[in-house]
Amino acid sequence: MARGGRVYAGAVIVGALVCVVAGGVGAGPWSRVAVLAALHLGCDWLVRRQTRVGAAAAGAVAAGEASARWAAFFPVLLAAATLLRPGSAALVPVLGAVLAPAAPPRALRRAWNAAQLALGTFAASAVFHGLDGPAQLARHQFPAVLGPTVVAALVFCVVSGVLAAGIRITAERADPRTVWHGVLLRSLVPCLGYGLIGLMMAVLWQGRYGVFSAVLVLLPLTVSSWVFAQFQREEAAHQATVSALVQAVEIKDEYTRGHSERVSRASVLIARELRMAEERVASLRIAGVLHDIGKLGVPTRLLRKNGPLTDDEHEAVQLHPTFGHEMVRGIGFLGEARQGILHHHERLDGRGYPSGLAGDQIPEFARVIAVADAFDSMTSTRSYRRGRPVEEAVTELERCAGSQFDPTMVAALIRAVRRHGWRPAQPRPGDEAAPDLPLGIREPSRAGVVG
To answer: Where are the beta strands (DSSP E) in 90-211?
Structure first.
């Protein structure tokens, strides 16, 4: 974690401690605090267990696991906000956060997670009490109590979202615009829905059902979380399919090892600069990884040839986007990624292949991958030439913008690289030969990306 992130996390932890002490932590009742804390811990553990999948799909599962955890523990936290004083309510999520798995530095991350949830619950409880919610709840004044409940749910969402966005910006140096959109806007609707479930739990708790209300409310949520976990396992299978395809290409072509991942990473950088929806970013990430899958249909001697290709070899290599598209045509979950694979060697001026598309006829994914592919190709060192410096590759992309590359995509990549940096591929021991890439484009001379 970066130093700025550590300072930020420390400030949030101290703030949470102050709020808990100032909010009347001794108000209890402790039996209710203990039961709610145990429920939160159990829900969090159950969802983590259900969504535990293979490491190969960890990136794809992360967002889904977060959503499932919202479904499991948020009603418990909102119930705590409505049933307890702010200081006591803030203690409910602490045990679950402290005992949950965490990446290094584990102690700091666990303390941060506890502080984030504690502050969100504290703020929700303070607002609910400030709007006279407890009195309305005790007198069963419906629908009047819905107002304080909705406001409390929104406050929890905003406070937790702002804190989460802050740690990503300070610790990971993420783009603030993307972070705010992803953390806040996408969590508002689920927050309101789960908030009403938390209100139902609080109403039943104060009635004849008591603590048994937790079973009535959380059992359906547990079932839905289990269903969601099955969906996540399906997503994991999708990721395993992609990994297997990439591994097959890497076995055949040494250069591709790492190239596909770098193209995917550069494509995602461009997508985030363009503020694509997260679903499209995920699809584009796969398209970048699989953009050269058609190399499985290209003769190995061409892939491993040391030096420029002849005209006949060049024509043979030009078939690889078509081969790739045919290979993935039946994989339904790829969606828009298939068009990115097929058309990533089209040119804006219509002189590309395989279809000779021009301008906006070229799918957006293909225009993104074309820039990412060329950028990694130029900055990668090969056996017969050293990679170009990043700034020189950027200059070359700018020169070819409008004729070969989409200027919007070029500008987005340049902004992203200058913000996040770029680490070009370095030759490894035993890499004596490398193909003429990007495949189908002749080795760029110092005068341009294409000969």
So the answer is: none
3-state DSSP assignment of residue 13: helix
Residue 284 · residue 276 · CB < 8 Å:
yes
DSSP 389: P
Lookup: tokens for 64: 């889904």
Q: At CB < 8 A and 24+ separation, what contacts does 143-152 make?
A: 145/199, 146/196, 146/199, 149/78, 149/82, 149/195, 149/196, 149/198, 149/199, 150/192, 150/195, 150/196, 151/127, 152/78, 152/81, 152/82, 152/124, 152/125, 152/127, 152/128, 152/195
Question: Binning pLDDT at 50, 70 and 90, where does residue 196 land?
Answer: confident
pLDDT at residue 402, as a whole number: 94
Distance CA 287, CA 190 (A): 29
CA angle 401, 406, 407 (to 5 degrees): 55
Interval 352-366 mean pLDDT: 95
Q: What is the DSSP secondary structure assignment for residue 444, as one 8-state letter?
A: P
For the chain, the distance separating the N- and C-terminal CA atoms, rounded to the nearest angstrom, is 45
What region, left, alpha or beta, does residue 427 occupy, with left being phi > 0 and alpha being psi -120 to 50 degrees? Answer: beta
- Answer yes or no: are the C-beta atoms of 118 and 93 closer than 8 Å: yes
Report the alpha-carbon distance of residue 191 to residue 150 in Å, rounded. Answer: 9
Write down the CATH number for the domain with range 253-420: 1.10.3210.10
Confidence tier at 1 by pLDDT (50, 70, 90): low
Range(s) of the chain covered by CATH 1.10.3210.10? 253-420
The answer to whether residues 152 and 128 touch, using CB atoms and an 8 Å cutoff, is yes
Q: Could you give the angle at the alpha carbon of 13 between the alpha carbons of 9 and 19, nearest 5°?
A: 140
